[in-house]
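Tokens for chain A. Residues wanted.
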């Protein structure tokens, strides 16, 4: 399977890989961004991290032509300190916080509301709690909080109440079934996103502790970079982008780093047209002083 990396030219331009440089791709996926870095600078080396064993296998296959210049390791992006302890500080760190085509295309993972597979949403297949566990077992008020806090869902209360009523007679098991149920509760806006989009986003973020993991990653960036090293992060929703913006601003105010992107970089119209999944991407970057 192939995956079209988002903002790849912009990432490479910002990271500006150097001969002999060492770079960490904290969200390896199928290796699109790593390929661009390795292709741009033949003397560079990349360590790629991912919590999905299938992604690691796919990336290793896709990037086999680069030989020993890519090393893929199993781990969440919050685990960057363990990579630095093993390989040393990096000249650059990149992280694409969006879902890969591998994840979206695997019906058994349940990330897509069009999937026939189980309501799962775990990025790491061995994680103990699935989206179905949350939907079927969590208290009604906690469901409302999750939908509102992590999905900005205006109808969080209405959805939570309806879910709590329905699950008394039959629990939710399949992704498509649940998305259809949510779509029957949330008003559809002509030309807008699928009515279940925000609820699915909220469940995915909560199940995978994405915001907590992002905070850990952001705190780990300064000690994980060499002086002059750069970090570039692509986010896909407001809470991620807000966390990145606040962290980078704090680093700049503290004299630890300088901000390279006064405003977040968004995909061009041409990129969005060729890859609609890129439409909400925002790229921010800093350079360690």
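Reply:
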């Amino acid at each position: 399977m192939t995956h079209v990396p988002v903002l790849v030219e912009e990432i490479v331009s910002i990271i500006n890989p150097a001969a002999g440089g060492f770079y960490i791709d904290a969200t390896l996926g199928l290796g699109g961004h790593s390929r661009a870095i390795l292709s741009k600078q033949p003397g560079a080396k990349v360590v790629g991290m991912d919590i999905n064993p299938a992604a690691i296998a796919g990336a290793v296959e896709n990037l086999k032509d680069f030989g020993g210049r890519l090393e893929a390791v199993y781990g969440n992006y919050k685990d960057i300190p363990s990579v630095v302890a093993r390989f040393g500080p990096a000249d650059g760190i990149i992280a694409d916080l969006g879902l890969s085509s591998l994840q979206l295309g695997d019906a058994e993972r349940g990330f897509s509301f069009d999937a026939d597979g189980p309501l799962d949403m775990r990025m790491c297949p061995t994680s103990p709690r699935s989206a179905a566990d949350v939907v079927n077992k969590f208290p009604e008020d906690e469901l409302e909080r999750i939908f509102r806090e992590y999905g900005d869902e205006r109808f969080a209360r209405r959805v939570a109440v309806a879910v709590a009523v329905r699950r008394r007679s039959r629990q939710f098991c399949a992704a498509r079934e649940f998305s259809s149920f949510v779509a029957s509760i949330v008003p559809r806006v002509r030309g807008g996103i699928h009515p279940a989009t925000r609820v699915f986003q909220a469940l995915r973020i909560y199940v995978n502790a994405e915001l907590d993991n992002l905070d850990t990653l952001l705190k780990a960036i300064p000690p994980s970079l060499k002086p002059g090293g750069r970090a570039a992060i692509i986010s896909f929703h407001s809470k991620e982008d807000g966390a990145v913006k606040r962290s980078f601003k704090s680093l700049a105010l503290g004299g630890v780093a300088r901000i390279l992107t006064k405003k977040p970089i968004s995909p061009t119209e041409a990129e969005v047209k060729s890859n609609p999944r890129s439409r909400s991407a925002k790229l921010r970057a800093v350079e360690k002083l």
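The first helix runs from residue 8 to 15. Residues 116 and 140 are 26 Å apart (CA to CA).
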